[in-house]
Design goal:
Blueprint: H1 2-19, H2 21-41, H3 45-73, H4 80-86, H5 91-121, H6 128-154, H7 159-170, H8 172-186, H9 190-221
Helix pairs in contact: 1-5, 2-3, 2-5, 3-5, 3-6, 3-8, 5-6, 5-9, 6-7, 6-8, 6-9, 8-9
Length: about 220
């Protein structure tokens, strides 16, 4: 399973390195979202300071939608999905590989966005002991949930519009918990953030476990 996951993740990351969609399109889009928020809230600097963690994770959420759509769009033509089903690869390995590839792309974007909020919003992510594991847990949860709903929507003609409708309500706990954990990390109140980090870890574990169980069925039905 892990060997197959490494193969799938390597394939997706090589495709992304050649196409550079995340670098040329997704990252500028996410940074533009932060810039627009800054223009909208800059007259009230206090509101902008308080809203920084939430705005950061809204931008990450939008970027994750684009990353998930991209991960399955490259396999929607020329019978690539059929090739995956007939390849003999472990479906659980395919799921983990997709999750890993999306997670790597999101983590790179999150680093860029973190630099963006420091520059644009004058934020101070002082509690890195909480901020870093929050990013890791939230990214894994977003990637796992996105991969599940991405394969579910991939076989539909309206996949570009149905994926946000399916995914956004599901990942609301990630948005809430990651925002609360970031607020605690930015304010150096680490003790208050650990329970939110625990919720993120629980969400990620639940969707990873669910994906390992049902991805085979979803891939066949798709």
């Amino acid at each position: 399973m892990f060997r197959d996951a490494a193969l799938i993740a390597g394939k997706d990351l090589r495709l992304e390195a050649r196409a550079r969609v995340a670098l040329n399109q997704v990252a500028p889009f996410a940074l533009l979202v932060l810039v627009l928020f800054a223009f909208a809230l800059d007259p009230d600097r206090g509101v902008l300071d308080r809203a920084t963690p939430g705005l950061y994770w809204v931008a990450v959420l939008f970027a994750s939608l684009l990353a998930v759509q991209r991960a399955f769009a490259v396999e929607s033509a020329d019978g690539v999905r059929d090739g995956l089903r007939l390849s003999g690869l472990d479906p659980a390995g395919i799921f983990l590989g997709k999750v890993l590839a999306v997670s790597v792309q999101l983590l790179v974007l999150e680093v860029l966005l973190l630099v963006g909020v420091v520059v644009l919003y004058d934020a101070d992510p002082g509690g890195l002991a909480l901020v870093v594991p929050t990013c890791l847990a939230a990214t894994l949860g977003l990637a796992a949930a996105g991969t599940l709903y991405g394969v579910l929507a991939a076989g539909l003609r309206v996949r570009e519009t149905i994926l946000p409708l399916l995914l956004l309500p599901v990942v609301a706990p990630v948005l809430i918990a990651a925002t609360q954990a970031f607020e605690a990390g930015f304010d150096d109140r680490l003790g208050e953030g650990w329970r939110w980090l625990g919720l993120l870890a629980l969400f990620a574990a639940a969707y990873l476990g669910l994906g390992l169980l049902v991805f085979d069925t979803l891939l066949e039905d798709g």
